[in-house]
Amino acid sequence: MGEDLSGYHADRIQAAIASDAAAKSALIASWRRSSNLHRLDPADCSPARYLTQLELGQARQRIEPLVRTAQSSLDRLYLAVGGVGCCVLLADCDGVPVERRGSPVDDETFHSWGLWTGSVWNEESQGTNGIGTCLVEQRALTIHRDQHFYTCNTGLSCTTAPIYDHQGDLVAALDVSSCRADLTEAFANLISVAVVDAARRIEAENFRIAFSKARILLAPVADKGSGALIAVDSDDLVVGATRSARLALGITQECLDKPTPAADLLGWAKNGPEVLAEAERGVLQRALARTDGNVSAAAQALGISRATLHRKLNRLDVHRSH
User: What is the rounded distance in angstroms from the CA atom of residue 191 to the CA atom of residue 195?
Assistant: First the structure.
């Protein structure tokens, strides 16, 4: 990159930082953090910092269950974007990629840019960039070419989405990066849809594994694709919720630390004497369904006599459909 262009980019950033635009622009606020908080120089062209193999192994080990869960989603995302010269990175909460997908013909190029496992892409080290800024702002975003803080990174376009664990904590970032000069912002927006979708799939699968013995319900929220899931145990008590569900339904950790009926949380609760009757009716209906409508078999499964079951069916107005 020419010295004039390098100087122009650095001057442009310094001018933006000196203005009052940071209050209105998340991008300029990130530039300001990079300069004022982390004391970085946009003209610095030092190579990307890499962890040692030991450090990388330890970083990967810390989120190994998530890495295993993410494999199929990473493969699918790479199939969608790999053909247009992009690589896929899964970074930990410190901004270090621990898993990667990329074409072997592009390996040398991506490695030279630092788009590799073990490189450090937090804002403290690299200034404004997809992975680091996503982790700070905890939202999906694209840092396109000259939106990067460092001049040496302005050839990159990086689209990143945060990943939250089953307890709603930020644990990773999913990134698709490209160093193609012809990658337009419009195409980067299409990539963003794929990245966010993949991140939500990883979160959902990780949540299901964490609560493998619970029923997983889609919370009744406006955005059905937000990944708002809750886990409910055999007593219909809520035992877990994704971050999206927590935000949408106002679920706090305190709510999950005490027994909370799913019906109460979701606004399905009913009051009055009918509640117990409905619960009993449900038990009878399920027993009959499991025995294909055989009253004798259902009574035996419930541990009651056939006559008792008949009385309950009549009292609760349960009609066999078989």
Answer: 6
H or E element: which one contains 137?
Answer: helix 130-137
Whether the predicted pLDDT of 157 surpasses 80:
yes
In 19-84, which ranges are continuous DSSP H helix? 26-32, 53-62, 64-81
Alpha-carbon dihedral 273, 279, 280, 281, rounded to 10 degrees? 100
Angstrom distance (rounded) from CA 178 to CA 159: 9
Alpha helices in 144-212 (DSSP H): 185-210
Mean pLDDT across the stretch 43-59? 94
Q: Please state the φ and ψ torsions of residue 25, each to the nearest 5 degrees.
A: -120, 120
pLDDT by residue (tens digit) across 160-211? 999 999 999 999 999 999 988 887 777 888 899 999 999 999 999 999 999 9
Say if residues 164 and 240 touch (Cβ distance below 8 Å): no
Considering only CA atoms, which of 204, 69, 207, 191 is closest in space to residue 140?
191
pTM, two decimals, is 0.84
Asked if 58 and 168 count as a contact pair (C-beta separation under 8 A), the reply is no
Q: Determine contact, residues 173/135, Cβ cutoff 8 Å.
A: yes
- Asked if residue 1 has pLDDT above 50, the reply is no
Instruction: Taking the CA atoms of 10, 16, 22 and 24 in sequence, report the sign of the dihedral they define.
Output: negative
Residue 31 burial by Cβ neighbours in a 10 Å radius (0-12, 13-18, 19+): buried
Q: Which backbone phi and psi does 177 adopt, to 5 degrees?
A: -120, 150
Mean pLDDT of the chain: 89
Distance in angstroms (rounded) separating the CA atoms of residues 27 and 21 = 9
The tokens describing 173, both together, are 């970032």
Element (H, E) at 231: strand 229-232
Position of tokens 């794929």? 194
> Is the backbone of residue 293 left (phi > 0), alpha (psi -120 to 50) or beta?
left
Per-residue pLDDT, 66? 97
Q: Which tokens go with 7?
A: 């100087």
Spatial neighbors of 148 by CB under 8 A, at least 6 apart, are 127, 128, 129, 154, 156, 158
